[in-house]
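Standup notes
- DV: blocked on the single-chain target, sequence here:
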Amino acid sequence: MKAKEKIRKIAGNRWARTAALALTAAIAFSWLYSHGISPVWTAVAIVCFRGLFRFLYRIACILVAFAIILCILSFLVF
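- DV (later): unblocked, structure below
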């Protein structure tokens, strides 16, 4: 069995995706907890203010795209 087939088999597995999501959430919540933010209040904020997080994500994407464009333009000019 080739590596690509094994990766597709694992990626297609529902349990593997669920385990990966749980691991990612645990890492994120533990990082927030170590910085003084309760995981309960983080989860409540995500559930209650879903539109706010979408807005913040869009703003972050726009800022990153703007920074990349500025880097490219400054490389071309200088």
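- Follow-up: The mean pLDDT is 82.
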